[in-house]
Every structure is written in structure tokens, then in C-alpha cells.
Amino acid sequence: MKKVIIAGLLVFILIVAVVVSFVFYRSRGSVRLIPEKDYTVNDSVTAYYQRDPEWKEDKLGNSSYTIGSSGCLLSCITSAISETESKTTPGELNKLFSEKGVYDANGNLQWGILDEIDGFHSEVYSEVSGEIVDKCLENGRYPIVKVRTFQGVGANHYVLIVGAENGEYVCMDPLKGYFTTLEEYGRKIYAVRCVWYE
After folding, report:
1. Rounded distance, CA 148 to CA 164, Å?
2. Mean pLDDT along residues 9-29
3. What is the pTM of this model?
4. Given 3.20.20.70, 1.10.8.10, 3.40.228.10, 3.90.70.10, which CATH number is that of 31-197?
5. Phi-psi domain of 42 (left: phi exceeds 0; alpha: psi -120 through 50; beta: other)
6. Residue 183 CA to chain centroid, in angstroms?
7. Helices 72-80 and 90-99, interaxial angle, to 10°?
8. How far apart are CA 110 and CA 105, in angstroms?
9. Among 20-29, 36-45, 164-173, which stretch is predicted with the lowest mean pLDDT?
């Protein structure tokens, strides 16, 4: 009986060690964000659902990927410019990006080509920090941040930070089509992009 208990404890310890190692591995390179002050959440920012039947099957350029499967970044950009004269839908913006060759063969955005489209500007930050996120918000721009789903240990995903209130960053999640908080992703981000139209 004693041997069975010891064996069970060893298996339990091994499982815990594997889970902790997995979480640590998935979190490497991330920065944990908690806002130091509030940033007004503008009600005129439109939340877009990348799996909307109207555009979910649309291909990203000539790739095999669709807005529904891989269009979170596109949907974030669409929401980021939804207050401007260039307000559009993910389907319409995807058509423009496809025509202009913004995607590579794997459906990835080519930032330099995006910047060549009249009115569009982007910033791809080489580092990740709360200061960068806050600077974007202070300048009236919305940072697009790479997160991991399921409390920061799931698949890569992009959400759009639209402000901060009550000690949490508020973000638009294209997989949900509504606003939530960064807390849902463990408050961890892995990359920062910013796209604006003027």
C-alpha cells in the first residue's frame, strides 16, 4: 500500500512539473500588462467578428487561409480604423489588401506594402512594453497586441486594445466580436502593432 501511495505521489509531482514547464514555456517572451491609469473607451469603435458569415470564407489574398480561420489581425485593423472616414468591414478591407498584394503566400501581412496604401500607416514595434501600449493610446491610436488564448497558454491570437478602465485594459476580440479585458488572456502580450488611417 505504501509503495502505491509513493508511486501515486511521484506521478502527481511529475504531472505538476510538466504543466508548470508547459505554462512557463508558452509564456516566454511575454510582458504582463496592468494599466497605471484609465484611458477612455470610445463607444464609436466597432467590434468585428472574424467569423461573420458575410466574410468568414473570404481568402486572405492568394493564400488558403480565410478571414474566419486567420483574420484576427485584419479584423483588429478594421476596428482600429472604424472611427475614421475609411470605415469599412473586414470583408471590404480584405478585398483591398488582396488587390494591393498586402498578403504573402501564407496570408501574412506585409507591413511595408500596407504603408504604401494611401491613408494607411503602421508601426511594428521591435520590443514589447506597457509604455508602448500606453503611448499608442495617448496618441489616439489603438495598439494591436499578440496574445495567447486560454489565459495566456493557448494559440496565438491578436486583439485590439481600445482603452483601460477599472485597472484593466479593454480590448476587442475578433474571435468573439465584442469587447473584453486583457485579463482573459492572462494580461500577457507577446508583440505590439499599431495601424491608423489619416
Report:
1. 19
2. 48
3. 0.84
4. 3.90.70.10
5. beta
6. 13
7. 110
8. 11
9. 20-29
